[in-house]
Design a protein that fits this description.
Helices cover about 30% and strands about 20% of the residues. The radius of gyration is 28 Å and the shape is globular. The longest helix is centred in the first third of the chain and has 25 residues. It contains 14 helices and 25 strands. It is α+β, with helices and mostly antiparallel strands and about 600 residues long. The strands form 6 sheets. Strands 7-8-9-10-11-18-24-21-20 form a 9-stranded mixed beta sheet, with no helix packed on it. An 8-stranded antiparallel beta sheet has the order 12-13-16-17-25-23-22-19, with no helix packed on it. The chain folds into 2 domains: about 325 residues, Glycosyltransferase (Alpha/alpha barrel); about 210 residues, no CATH class.
Length: about 600
Amino acid sequence: MSMDRRRFVMGTAVGTAAVGAVSGVGPAFAAAPAAAGTGAAGEQRAPEDGAFLDLITAEGDRLVPDVLASYRANLVTINARGTARAIRRLAAAWVWERSAHHHDETLVAPMAEMAEALADYQHDDGLFDQGNLHSPPDTAFSIGDLCIVLSLLGEDDDARTAGVRETVGRIVRAAGPAMAEGGVHTPNHRWKICGVLAQVNALFPDRRYPRRIDQWLAEGIDQYPGGQYSERSATYASVVTGYSLLTVARLADRPELYENVRRNLRVTRFLLEPNGEVVTVHSRRQDQTRQRSIVDYWLLYRELAIHDRDPELAAVARDIERRIVELPGGEDPTGDALARVLHHRELAGRLPGSGLPPTRYEHHDTDTALFRSRRGTRTFTLFGGTDFAEIPTFASGLSTNPTFLAFRRGAAILDSVRLAPQFFSLGHFRSEGLERASGGGWRLHSRVRAAYHLPLPPQHRREDGDYALTDDPRFWSAMDFPHRPKTYLTLRTEVVVRESGDGLDVSFQVDESEVPLAIELAFRPGGELSGSGLTAVQGQADTHQLVSGEASYTVGDDRITFGPGNGSGPGQPPVVDPGERYTWLGGNLTPTGPRVLITGRTPFRYRLTLR
């Protein structure tokens, strides 16, 4: 049993008795060299990875000047999470012997000032406002960082930080009961609360904390069989949930939770792009239209690789470390790893031997209707699993991204292929599933309909004309739509994607109603479009219509060739209609970067080639 877990288990037995002094608490801290060392109570520490420690030390030190230069300005309108993170950055540098800022007295006053500001900002019930009022989960993000601060400074036990420790301890003690009693908004909030309550209990034991952890865990972890969590998010769910579950596994003696994190990390390997981004098109959170980086998973892969002695997970961790400078930035700077590692020194252990992460594979995630194919630096992604067919609306927590295909060839990136028919302003094609196509390849499909409403039957008529306000579902009106007979027009769409040589053939079949449509290809900014059949679309920035022949998008030596064009004219305008649900709210579904539209009119039979 580790020292972290032993402290938690022993602590729960003493009930509400708080740890009297804030010195000497928290997991074992020792500023040891990169070799075997001695931890708390004479425990022998495994040999540590010196290169890794050098890397995180340098990254952590880079954060210190920024904190010192900006912290006072940031206290004018305080952000609890940002302030707690800033204290954590300074505390990590203060305690760490390898840091250029080790025991630098210029760090003490800023830490004290920020801690006092946080204490003043904290409500009487122990909670913070962070977008949400008196929010237990948002408070947990701040308290988790402050628990690390308290542990690091307590183990360091320098008299010069006594005031900081007293203030931070007061904040943590005040927040614990409120987090143990309050509620949450999203699935991952439950696990964040659990992880932070485990941290608080390790410092200030209270039976309420493990009791609340048990209540949340009794609901079951929201994970699909394939490893994705229910929010399907590359950062908001997977990273927050992963770190939280590992904390509970260590501190609350729940080793079974390692398996949840292990399964998620294994499936995430197949979401990695060659440049270190993680596929997010299937997410139910804000990242479904953003580029996210694998660096957010760095310590998750490292911890499980060391814990399991797993070469496959070690390969990802080692690849992140090898390419850390060139990888896209993550949610947090890489220097934030320093405090986590000093707080949980097993993370500094040496990774098991490994090769490289997989670069040739096919992966079909049936839980999310996502398919990934990689052949070296050429990848493509298919997605047919939005929530739109069952819940036809746009809202936080729903998967609504209309991108059904992305294609990469090295640095030339086609971020998004979408199809937008102008059918009763219902918006983009969103597939109702993803399945193997007869003859090979993959099939995406949908059949949507729009109603014309007939007169109400006699039993539902009202002489005063005061009918219920109901949903069409395209719009709302006082028409009592559910009780009306209807006639329908329908639009059927089928897209079949097949590999052909070193590229793709994408076949479209759209029929049952006669409407104009546009295929939208959105490329990553930074390259050049070329092709004699490209014409600029008036009034739409960086947008072209491919009228004839093929065109290319080139970045350096990498190129994607696509086409052919499909003509132009009044019957097939270069217009992408996002649908009335979006335009009514002033929404914008236009991707960033250069766009190419290929237009047509139903009945539509067309084959797009990507090479």
